[in-house]
Amino acid sequence: MMIATFSNARTTLACAHKGYTEGFNTAFRGGSVMGYALCSLGVFVLWVLLTFYRKVYPEADDWEILFDCAAGYGLGGSTVAMFGRVGGGIYTKAADVGADLVGKVVAGLDEDDPNNPATIADNVGDNVGDIAGMGADLFGSFAESTCAALVIAAAAVEGSNNTLSAAGWDAMLFPVAISAAGIVICILCGFFATNISPVKVEADIEKVLKIQMVLTAILMLPVIYYLAVLLLPEHFRLEGVRLTESGHQAKIHGSPFKAFICATMGCVGGLIIGLVTEYFTSHSFIPTRELASACKFGTAVNIIQGLALGYKSCIVPVFVLSSAIFVSFQLCDLYGIALAALGMLATLSCGLTIDGFGPISDNAGGIAEMALFNPEVRRRTDALDAAGNTTAAIGKGFAIGSAALVSLALYGAFVIRLRVKTGVNILEPTTFAFLIIGCMIPYWFAALTMKSVGKAAGEMVAEVQRQFSMKDSKGKTLLTGSTELKPDSKTCIQISTQASIREMVAPACLVILSPLAAGTFFGIQAAFGLLTGSLGSSVQLAISMSNSGGAWDNCKKFIKNGFSDDVELRYTKNPQTEEEKKAAPKAKEAHDAAVQGDTVGDPFKDTSGPALNIVMKLQAIVSLVFAAYFAAINHGHGLIQVQ
């Protein structure tokens, strides 16, 4: 966050004096600090932790206990991510919605107008939500996917010495090696964006960012294969959760090539999900342009179309995830799914760099507007921000896909840890009942977070209206050019801060306590059902909410920046031609409908949608860490002893 706030003013100055090349490079390098620092710290701290535990448990027979202890690393990362993501999301969207509704729709101000008291809170919120929140979320994914792979790999296989534990410490650390190699690949590819093929004109921005994502994914594949051959034994056996015809747990035969295919399914699957997300949310493609056309018929039609777009955007990602899960499970059982999650997160440094690029560019535009720079500077920062928005949507697609795989891997580690010999049978009454309850949890969570944004935004709207209605000694207001009154940004920042701290408690308690309550009172079968339902439901809801919100945001930019060939969708405050003057009232109505759609979409894409990633992961990691506790209560039947 510190580097991001240093970078945004420098990006504004670079765009003002040196054009697109320096502006892009400044924002990109500012974002890369989050990407490389977070991934490097994640790998290094985990390595130190495992090295320390290895001194306590030096024998390979004890490594199962060692990696159970290390699972706490994932729980810690995800717990903080919950507060960072939910708190940050409420903070940023309370300010954003309040600033948009009163500033743009009611008062007719430009975005980031210095007279709008909520502008500073909105810009601060971009850092809190998109830098701290997204960083914490993806750090949680990295920590948990690695811990899940380690716990599954360490599981002892009865009657076999040909396990990964027996193959030595290097084989066990194969998941950590993938993440470490990913950092090096992303650093090398970073030079492509800033030095080898830099941005020269506006059209280059999105192209360079997209090439960056594709290039890192392609270069990771041979590296993963090399690491698999180098570190893993030629053949190894794993504890599986599938049952043989005789009713015993299957013993899985793995190999370096199978492990490579599993990681590849995740890496390529993540890229496909990202590109599909871009198709549905970028104004370069048909879905968002159709959404812009719907704005001509009012806010209601825009919102109906936007919801439909989000639901439709689930189709391809769900098929991709299902394919990755099926292939990985067939090859290496649950270890394969954990490797697929790691494959998807292998290029995390690059993904986080691009995620950080977006809010830095957004803040640069705000600074250009508030510091009264030439309009051309704002146009350049807006071009950076628009590309950052699209690539951030791609990043959210990656985050959701990886969260689904991580959650499933953790769920599998939970089942293996409990030594469940009969598999998970969803037709057990307790399991099925809690499966339905699990499906409901994401909706309950989304309701809490969206209501929180609504309440906080209401407070923000009231405060901004109060300041706009104040008059100075000459009877002038902030909007009519008062020289005595100044916008009170501090009060707006306090509203967002207090609301985010107050409102993040209930959603976090729901996610952390629900698996604990199910396992404690109703036993492990209830926990199985809860995790199954929550995972299936969260994936669909997260994808649809994030993509609806992203499409509404880019639809607003499409109309505001005049990209359309339809004059009724080219909003301008100062129409020049006769045709523009005639269409101005219609264009204003379409713009207002788009702004209102965007305010609805703000909590969708930046609060509830992304936070559902953590719902999936946190419930699963809590269950894994407390597995022994659940098993100890009446032999896993819970305090109520449901049979």
From TrEMBL:
InterPro entries: PPase-energised_H-pump (IPR004131). Keywords: Ion transport, Magnesium, Membrane, Translocase, Transmembrane, Transmembrane helix, Transport. Its main location: membrane. Its EC number is 7.1.3.1. Residues 573-592 have a biased composition (Basic and acidic residues). It is a multi-pass membrane protein. It is found in: Endomembrane system. Residues 573-600 are annotated as: Disordered. The chain crosses the membrane at residues 33-53, 172-193, 213-232, 259-280, 300-327, 334-354, 393-414, 426-445. This is H(+)-exporting diphosphatase. The lineage of its organism: Eukaryota, Sar, Alveolata, Dinophyceae, Suessiales.
